[in-house]
Design a protein that fits this description.
Elements (H helix, E strand, L loop, with lengths): L1 H13 L27 H13 L2 H21 L33 H20 L2 H18 L4
Helix pairs in contact: 1-2, 1-3, 2-3, 2-4, 3-4, 4-5
């Protein structure tokens, strides 16, 4: 766990003034890019995963500000509908339906649908630690219903 604790501090140190997450940490590329789902979500998901594995609340205490900043960054990227539909997204690289897009690098799931699923996941990690459960459920319900309406599954 010492390695992961140190790396979480590295992640926190790389959060930019716009609260985005660079594409690599440590950021050897030097250019600050807007954060992308899946990769950026590690700042919220990893502390929660380590807490669940080891039961050490200090990981959450030390990471909460980073977790909060990441969720606030995503919220700043959301449109009037409350969904994240802007910027570069990696999308679903594990989908077996790549032929549908003609892009062999990722599946046919909409990139922004995947980003909103990650947003809900990061929001869940942050809110569970903070224990504002009613607000979390309202936001999660809004994200879920909104994502299904905007990105209907075929």
């Amino acid at each position: 766990m010492p390695f992961m604790s140190k790396w979480l501090r590295d992640l926190a140190s790389e959060l930019g003034p716009d609260v985005s997450m660079p594409q690599v940490v440590p950021n050897i590329l030097g250019n600050q890019q807007d954060g992308a789902a899946f990769w950026g979500d590690v700042v919220a998901v990893l502390p929660w995963t380590l807490y669940r594995a080891y039961g050490d609340k200090r990981i959450l205490q030390h990471s909460y500000d980073s977790m909060k900043h990441w969720v606030e960054f995503i919220e700043s990227q959301c449109g009037e509908n409350g969904l994240w539909q802007t910027g570069f997204q990696y999308g679903d690289w594990l989908g077996l339906d790549a032929e549908a897009l003609g892009d062999e690098r990722k599946g046919a799931t909409d990139d922004y649908f995947a980003a909103n699923v990650c947003f809900a996941w990061s929001l869940q990690m942050k809110e569970f630690w903070k224990f504002t459960i009613p607000q979390y459920f309202i936001r999660l319900l809004f994200l879920t219903v909104g994502a299904v309406l905007i990105f209907p599954m075929a």
